[in-house]
Amino acid sequence: MELLRDTRRMTGISCVVCLLTLSYIHTLTEADTEASCVVLKSCILPCSFQGGAEVVVHWFQGTGKTPVHSYYHNQDQLARQDQRFRGRTSLFKDQISRGNASLQLTGVEVQDRGRYNCHTSTISGNKDSFINLKVDAPVAEVDIQKVENRITCSSEGIYPEPELTWSTSPPSSVTFKNTTTVRETEQQLYNISGSLILSDSGTDVAYSCNISTRRNKRRATLRHPPPIIASSTDTTIPCSVSDTSLMVFSLVWRFNHSQIILNQAGANVSHSVSEEWRQQVKGVSESGGLMLQDLSWKQEGMYTCELSNPEETYVTNTFLRIEKVSRTGVTGIIVAVVVGVIVVVLLTGLILYCKSKRRGTRPEMVL
Ligand SMILES: *[C@@H]1O[C@H](CO)[C@@H](O)[C@H](O)[C@H]1NC(C)=O
Ligand SMILES: *[C@@H]1O[C@H](CO)[C@@H](O)[C@H](O)[C@H]1NC(C)=O
Ligand SMILES: *[C@@H]1O[C@H](CO)[C@@H](O)[C@H](O)[C@H]1NC(C)=O
Ligand SMILES: *[C@@H]1O[C@H](CO)[C@@H](O)[C@H](O)[C@H]1NC(C)=O
Ligand SMILES: *[C@@H]1O[C@H](CO)[C@@H](O)[C@H](O)[C@H]1NC(C)=O
Ligand SMILES: *[C@@H]1O[C@H](CO)[C@@H](O)[C@H](O)[C@H]1NC(C)=O
Question: Where, by residue number, does the polypeptide cross the bilayer (predicted)?
């Protein structure tokens, strides 16, 4: 009996503790407003209060005692401001009297993340609000390239820590030797880089690298179709992307991994061709293919097509071999030179022959 009552009492106590904890957690979560910012951009930390006379506003980060921003006597009071926030904070002055104490923060850094306290006071009372600031640095660009039998994929300035995964199309059961390196920068951002060693680079497989973080993900795909052999002075190098919705975004064609041939910023936007390629570029096909003309051996090399939209980048490296064009060209020149030389020799011979013949015949005619 005694034991039973004891157990009951204990259950009762733990229930009260449990309820207290729950309500405490509840008030905590209820009090915190969530705000989300992107690194280097600006954002607003919301805070409102019952407006009134003699407004005092203090913003603090975490448990810090140094204000992020202060306002009283109808003006900003920044003498004691935390130096990390110098020149990056402002209030909406015209709205303070109406109860808006929201803080605008510019040039957001990863270090700005965390809990903020907005303390306001007027003659009618005080108020403390808590704002939880989440900071993200989304994956911006993913660079993918192949050197010999190694494909590398990388991206920089990401927060929180990103993940990198590989896939192939068509799906391959082969497990590749892959390594991923993540480095943290001084700004607490992450640089990520992964590489894949191919055992057989002969087949036409598309390799995709997927980099993801809390806010977004981006995928970069690399393809190496078989070389194209140009047997006339005109040819079209396809961009080899089946998904034409990608054409709504940007297209770049490069030569030998460096020289830019042309750029197109969107589907209905006209492309711009670089000066050196004006003569060779005839246009861009609907699916992004590069239409070339007036080809000579100088245009033999690697053509890279890069199509991107906000989620994906497709890189296709196609080698263009100039075959008959260059050969007929060279043979043509040789034939022309040979024919020219023969003609000159024959003409000279003929003239000399005629002259000597005339010299020899003249006296006869006189006779
Ligand atoms: C305060 O004013 C700014 C600027 O007009 C506005 O963007 C923000 O939503 C306002 N915040 C509140 C809590 O009223
Ligand atoms: C990459 O390596 C990890 C372990 O190191 C492995 O689990 C994964 O399957 C590999 N990915 C591919 C595509 O081979
Ligand atoms: C991260 O990438 C940036 C941009 O390329 C570079 O300047 C920086 O040195 C890199 N940081 C680390 C720690 O690798
Ligand atoms: C990329 O990786 C993320 C997380 O690992 C996953 O959720 C997503 O489905 C992947 N996307 C693709 C296209 O593979
Ligand atoms: C591009 O133009 C075509 C017709 O000229 C139109 O149907 C299409 O909606 C346009 N696309 C964009 C993205 O503006
Ligand atoms: C382009 O690359 C190919 C193959 O590497 C090379 O033969 C050619 O000379 C390069 N052309 C130019 C203009 O650099």
Answer: 330-353
**186 DSSP 8-state letter:** T
Give me the helices (H) in 35-175, please. 93-96
pLDDT(37) > 60: yes
Q: Same domain, yes or no, for 148 and 50?
A: no
Q: Is residue 32 part of a domain?
A: yes
Q: How far is the CA of 292 from the centre of ligand 3 (A)?
A: 38
> Which token pair is 116?
């903020």
Strands 217-223 and 312-322: parallel
**221-260, pLDDT tens digit by residue?**
999 889 999 888 889 999 866 665 555 678 999 999 999 9
85 and 178 part of one domain: no
Q: Are residues 131 and 145 in the same domain?
A: no
Split at pLDDT 50, 70, 90, the class of 147 is: confident
Query: How many domains does the structure of the chain reveal?
Result: 3
Ligand 4 atom at minimal distance to the Cα of residue 167 = 14
Whether the Cβ atoms of residue 315 and residue 221 lie closer than 8 Å to each other: yes
Which residue is closest in CA terms to ligand 4's atom 7?
212
- 339 assigned to some structural domain: no
Q: Is the pTM of this model over 0.90?
A: no
Which CATH number do you get for residue 240? 2.60.40.10
- Give residue 165's pLDDT band: very low, low, confident or very high (50, 70, 90): very high
Please classify residue 272 by burial: count the beta carbons closer than 10 Å to its beta carbon, then call 0-12 exposed, 13-18 middle and 19+ buried: exposed
Task: Check whether residue 195 and residue 229 sit in a common domain.
Answer: no
Res. 313: pLDDT tops 50 = yes
Ligand nearest to the CA of 258: 6
Task: Answer yes or no: is 84 within a domain.
Answer: yes
Higher-scoring residue by pLDDT: 347, 33: 33
- Could you tell me if 121 and 144 lie in one domain? no
Which range marks the domain in which residue 90 is found?
A: 25-136
